[in-house]
Amino acid sequence: MQHDLFAAPASGPERLPLADGAVVLPAYACGVADQLLAAIDSVVAQAPLRRMVTPGGQTMSAQMSNCGALGWVTDRAGYRYQATDPVSGRPWPAMPVAIARLATQAAALAGFADFFPDACLINRYQPGARMGLHQDRDEQDLSQPIVSVSLGLPMVFQFGGLKRSERPRRVPLNHGDVVVWGGPSRLRYHGVLTLKPGTHPATGDCRYNLTLRRAGR
Ligand SMILES: O=C(O)CCC(=O)C(=O)O
Ligand SMILES: [Fe+2]
Fold this sequence. Notes:
This protein is an alpha+beta fold. Helix content is 12%, strand content 30%. It has a seven-stranded antiparallel β-sheet, covered by helices on one side. A hairpin with a 2-residue loop joins strand 4 (71-75) and strand 5. 40% of the residues are buried. Keywords: Dioxygenase, Iron, Metal-binding, Oxidoreductase.
């Protein structure tokens, strides 16, 4: 075989720009997906997945849990982060190293150095579940990005503008894809369309999403 001396140098993982400060890293987490799924299993054994209620009284369709120093919760009193699981009253499980490391590495690739998440929301979607367009803005330091990891069944991500009225782009997300958004994109509206039924070798009939954030200072 002849080597092509003029081939472009290896440029590392693929990066698909979505907007200024926002990028998709396709399949970036595939190599550690089994570690991430094992980590999720150990977290939800201690802090079981549950359906939370919005301040408006709607039960969310995704099941949720958290790990890390802070966990995102919602109930009739509002959206917030807290250090304890409201179901057990105990601190959330520690963030598994495999999850934290992947988030720091993905953020760096997207241009956000020194991202050390203190909160990891675990979302589990079964067919029919969705998450409507929203902004992530319960965090104290909005200069820190968001890292979002997809595992299992494919789902369509909606990535909109800074105003709810701006029509979102639709981005199909597959197993192992990572989305990072921050900087000028930090407050963009986003969500996921209804999950279609299917079976994935890694997760069976569901999709997991890990949303990693720096919630405190
Ligand atoms: O499941 C997803 O891809 C998005 C999750 C999300 O936006 C959130 O948990 O705030
Ligand atoms: Fe979000």
